[in-house]
Amino acid sequence: MTSLAAVLSVDSRGPAGLYLMTDSRITWKGYDGEWDAGQKTYFASNQPHIFGFCGNAAFPPSVARQLIEQIEAGIIGSGDDPDVVRADILAGLEWARSAATNKFFDEFSLFHGYREGFGMKCKFHLWRYQYFMSTDKLYNSRIELDATTSCLAHIDGSGKNTIQHFRDTVARGVAASTSRAAVWTFYDALRSGKDRATGGAPQLVGLWRVGPAQRFGVIWQGARYVAGIKLPSRSSSGTIHWFDDEFESLGRLPPGWKAGPEPA
Question: What does the pLDDT look like over 121-137, one tens digit per residue?
Fold first, then answer.
């Protein structure tokens, strides 16, 4: 499994952003060991769509990339009717599921975030598509988003209970109703190591009021990570937006920027 969180950011004018966060660990049922560089979050580079998954690591990442190619090509998901967008995604998932025989993939949840419209009148949507091997069926549901406050809009995966524990701790703090507190909750749960199937660096994709979806760079334990992969110290920081491990926005890092030393 894994840990996944959807974070809704709300400011004084209303909903401002929707993020999907995961860890980077892949584990194998029945085997020891893990891989801490598995990609679990995805985004369309020219459209307002983000995806993230937990559970089986075979079907969701493959199909998410295929759907994103169709979205980026303008074949699906380019209209403002969220019901049509949802139907297109569901149709693709259902066909891909039905194309498999002697199912080798276990249960999973694939999350899809979408922005309807843009600017101050935009709306954010979040759907969950769940597959259960016991029934060999795909179930879909809309996750309601509370547009009045920043929050952890949804938690999933094997690390759910750990995240809930840290959420209850943070909720007593003065910054409880902020997107930063929501991200702190996820980061603290990841640092704790309490869920064996959760580990590696956090991954973050998101939607803002304007523009296409974005992949965000993350500063984690003194190093830079993008989509779960640690960057060489000599590499450029590119053109993406960066956040540090306190969820402080760093914007586009200047040339030659260096993080502090990694913890011993």
Answer: 999 999 999 999 888 89
